[in-house]
Amino acid sequence: MTELALARLLPVAPRPETDERLSSWLARIAAIYRLPVAALLAHCGLVRADPFALEKGLGAGEGALLAERTGVSPEAIEAMTFGEIAAPAHGMIACGDRGICPLCADNPAIRRRDAALPWGFWCAVHGLRRRPLVGEAIETRFGAVAFRQLDPLARAGARRLGDWAAGRDDATPSVPDLLAFATAPHRRPSPPQLHEQPRLSLEARRAYRGFLEFPIARQALLAVVPEYDRIAPPLAKPVRAGFQGLADGSLLQNFALAAALARLTLAPVDYATTALAAGDEEGRERLRAALEAWPAGLRRRIHARFHALEAEKAGTRARGAAPEGFARRPVSRTPARVSSIPLRPVSGTPTRNLTNPAPKQGPRR
């Protein structure tokens, strides 16, 4: 296609769809004219421009050039970018979709902006829940009861993440501080526990010995959102620290992080204390280090609650302990078995019990 013909046809470019990404719209135009996107951008005066970089923010005059060559208003061009997302959150914008809206999947050429964000669990156009690109839907994984409890929390966490990314969130503890706490280890790494292991035969256990012995990171997220701990695959439970967990996490991991953010926002003392109580000494030191960024008054309340909980546990153990000098004998729950081995006399006197009665003796001579 000649340069003149392209210039004549570009003003009839397709209108952007609601919440469509700039890269998606440019790709649709390039497909109409059977051009690479790079050639289309070069015609628009943006030589060697990267569509993904343009989405994060148009430079001086770039939006005007695209508007002039495509016949679309500069406002419509700007609306297809992530211009409202602050620079610290740019690393969480994915090049592709993080999940699939069932209705948007009917037209894969149109990609929505919210599908690129780690808190975009619901399609802004159709209002439907996005499903993972691979595997079961989130609601199926959690089950109906647990999902009804987590869904409002994930929505609240997603709203706060969106406000933070747009620079509108000034609550304390801040979003970065809460995510740092949720992704901090509260226990030492350990192999999969019994409830995390699938039913395996002896041969399979030998074949998967590496999996059964592989140490898995145990983060505070598992204590704050135990529903996630129960259903997540063992090797997929750990998430990257801080915002990297959102940037690199799966839809399931991000959903759990959003729910954890909401719980730590609504009841920081309760859930921080829960994570401390569930941890070991090494993990508690890591959690205390993460708490240093929280307000001092909040830290004091958390530590006071934790020490009160520990004192209560110690009192319970003391009340349940046996009196001094008395050793409580463990009660065996194994049925008694009668031995077929004959007794041997000890010091000339055979030892007998109820399960091995003494033999009858004849009259003495």
Poorly predicted ranges? 325-329, 336-358
* Order of helix and strand elements from N to C terminus: HHHHHHEEHHHEHHEHHHHHHH
Number of separate structural domains: 2
Radius of gyration: 32 Å
Structural write-up:
The protein has 365 residues and is mostly helical. The chain has two domains: 3-83, no CATH class; 140-317, no CATH class. The chain contains 18 helices and four strands. The strands form two sheets. Strands 1-2 form a two-stranded antiparallel sheet. Helix 2 (22-32) packs across helix 3 (37-43), helix 8 (144-165) crosses helix 15 and helix 15 crosses helix 16 (268-278). The protein is elongated and about 85 Å long. The termini are far apart.
Question: What is the structure about, briefly put?
Answer:
With 365 residues, the chain is mostly helical. The protein has 18 helices and 4 strands. The N and C termini lie far apart (128 Å).
Keywords:
365 residues; mainly alpha; 2 domains; two-stranded antiparallel sheet; 18 helices; 47% helix; 4% strand; elongated
Spell out the blueprint of helices and strands.
Blueprint: H1 3-9, H2 22-32, H3 37-43, H4 51-56, H5 62-70, H6 74-79, E1 99-100, E2 131-132, H7 138-142, H8 144-165, H9 175-182, E3 185-190, H10 202-207, H11 209-212, E4 216-219, H12 220-224, H13 226-231, H14 243-248, H15 251-266, H16 268-278, H17 281-291, H18 296-320
Antiparallel strand pairs: 1-2, 3-4
